[in-house]
């Protein structure tokens, strides 16, 4: 699309492109709350009845994506309501089976309610937008028909590069990737094209306090993402996720607190809960008796707090039942401690297991028993190498079928990992009899398309196969392995250069 000046300004380009552009603008101009009540303001282009109907149908058919932002659903509802008979779609884009099925159900219901016929080109076009913005951009891409590898890689690359420049290991925050994934997915799908508002004052204050982090992020967003994300507002909102990570995750700049108290158990637990509510970045609150103070190794702690004053000791005191004012003052002190803490070697904290250990042990034992690193005398062609790899597998009942499926899947969603020499092949199929993870060391390097859709020289192939009847535990383990391959650059190096024993030990851990 282009903006042209001719007695004012107008948008020129194909009709479906202008329709999508209009849907984005309307999504940004109407609040989610107003849209849900049918209040479309002065935007008469939205027929109230058709738009409400479109919203109901879209919400019902997209209920299988519980993590989808309400604004994204609103965009699809507006896009559907704007469809008319006059549109001419020349090219039918290639779409996934899942997107096409959802689009067909949406148009079937919409056509029935509006008593209007819609062309197959419209159904396919709508499916292609579903593919682009939702189906191909799910946070767990394993075994999906289509997958936007470049988008997934860009999120991972942003976190990794910010970590490198700031010397802060943001990958330790287990939820940062997911938060950024959903934020940027929405920003790319429904971008704020004409920025009319500044950052909220509270966010501006945080940005000013973390100026270097903000500068690094803005430069990297410019380098990694499209131009329409290059706005002060978007820089600030993405930076906010990283800033929040510092204050949220006890894995990043963790703080250990020694709490000296002789209060009863219920009082102690309540106090600990209140401290963690204002300082979630606190990794550990170790409760000890006041009388044991002189025998405690204080080097294991960043901050010491007591419910009673200690003679001749300058230790901060907190009430057993602190006021809001006390908690806010404590929050500021702990934030200062976090920012100025001395990094030293400390005893590790044993992790708590919240899952059924027995089920995971059975699944992991089965998976480890199938693992091997194979030296393959391969053909120099990617397609023939995949065929050789599947021929080697003993847990496949129909090798020709699975070879075709893997190649088709890879063509849609290439999974060579940029700058590593690794390629990931994966499939869940009824033709797989047992779950397996196999690595192949190639005698001849081959060329394969990377997640960034660039040619990558591949020296090792990683094959993950899962049966249709696989348990949830097995699926969780396979997902964890795939994420370690793609997201964790330390593990990637081990997959890249390690021998079977080293990789086995890493998987076992």
From TrEMBL:
Keywords: Transcription, Transcription regulation, Transferase. Residues 360-509 form the PTS EIIA type-2 domain. Pfam families: PTS_EIIA_2 (PF00359). Residues 146-252 form the PRD domain. GO terms for molecular function: transferase activity. It comes from the Bacteria. This is Phosphotransferase.
